[in-house]
Amino acid sequence: MNELQKLGTAALTIVVFLSVASFFLAMLLGPALFFLTPAGSGFGRESVRPPILVFLLFGFDAPFTLNTGVFFLLLWSIFAVCFIAAWRLRESFHRVVSKAFSQPFKQVFNNWLFIMPIIASMLLAAVDLIIMVQDLFAVPTGGIPIPQTDTARFELFLSLSYASIIEEVGFRLTPIGTFLLAQLLLIQSQKNMGNVSLKQRIQLFLASFLYPDKAKRMVGSKNVSVNGIKDGISAGEWLMLLFTSLAFGAAHFVSSIGWEVGKITSTFLQGFVFGVVYLAYGVQAPILLHWFFNYYFYSYELGARYLSSSFDVSSIEIYTLRLGRILLIVFAALILQRIWTRRKLASTKTSATTPQSP
């Protein structure tokens, strides 16, 4: 690793640490808002019957009611478990950081928590770019109506938090996980892996939904951790990603909560990225990426309103957008450089193999 690469890695590591610290602060803001403010604690005493989304657009209301404060605490606990999983899998966060300056840069992709701020900011910048382009052509995106009362604000916060989980269950975990399980069972039978214990079958079943890449390794199939994104995701999985992302975009358009036709394209892109990180890192990755768009920014907005004006969401949004735009430019430059290098190499090989005239 040369000096320029070390400098870039150091800068990126600092950015990641700052972003992860802001994630953890946002996690603390949630319970503080719900249980330490009059508006939050007042809303927390109400009841809710959560809708359940099982498979794409198939959903129903739960046959029970929950106290809103308890319900939020359950959702928050799921987010906390996801952060713990993101820290530990595939390679622990602290281990990736410790090797950042001695190993190739691509090793940082071994931990979702390290790579999450990078992917999240780039995706936010890409979504912002799509909306700006659509606005130029008068394609409306719409938006959720701005809540005007304390109850409406906390109701939205609870709804956004819940959507980060239930939409990932409905649009990623159940459809893609079911497809993957069927695919892996077929591979298993083709390899004549008949002597599989009940425990191993249960492990494969659970891994197919919760940690797809590990499930692939269990049956000796190509996977992202070994073969990369391009070769580690099968053609059928790519089709499922396209299908579920289209359904995800369409569902937001027909939800009748303020979104318009322009929402389909930006949500399609988000859903596609959510699906890719699900296959690469496990279910905690899309839930936390969804959390970033739903819970993260709104927790700071409510924090500035109900706790302290120092929780200024606008500065966080500007910082994240600028970071995302810079990273998109760097990413595009790296892709162009790789294309140019490959073409130059191919041209050199062609020249070397062309017979010279006497």
Describe the secondary-structure layout.
Blueprint: H1 3-36, H2 38-43, E1 47-48, E2 51-55, E3 58-61, E4 66-67, H3 68-88, H4 93-98, H5 112-136, H6 150-190, H7 198-210, H8 212-218, H9 224-232, H10 235-253, H11 263-281, H12 284-306, H13 313-353
Antiparallel strand pairs: 1-4, 2-3
Describe this structure in words.
By secondary structure, the protein is mostly helical. The protein has one domain. It has 13 helices and four strands. The protein has helices at about 5-35, 40-45, 70-90, 95-100, 110-135, 150-190, 200-210, 210-220, 225-230, 235-255, 265-280, 285-305, 315-355; strands spanning about 45-50, 50-55, 60, 65. A hairpin with a 2-residue loop joins strand 2 and strand 3 (about 60). The radius of gyration is 23 Å and the shape is globular.
Instruction: State which percent range the strand residues make up.
Output: under 5%
Q: What coarse outline follows from CA principal-axis ratios?
A: globular
* Structural domain tally: 1
Helical fraction equals: over 70%
Terminal Cα separation, in Å? Answer: 45 Å
Short description:
The chain has 358 residues and is mainly alpha-helical. Helix content is 74%, strand content 4%. Strand 2 and strand 3 form a beta hairpin.
Using brief descriptors, characterize the structure shown.
two-stranded antiparallel sheet, mainly alpha, 358 residues
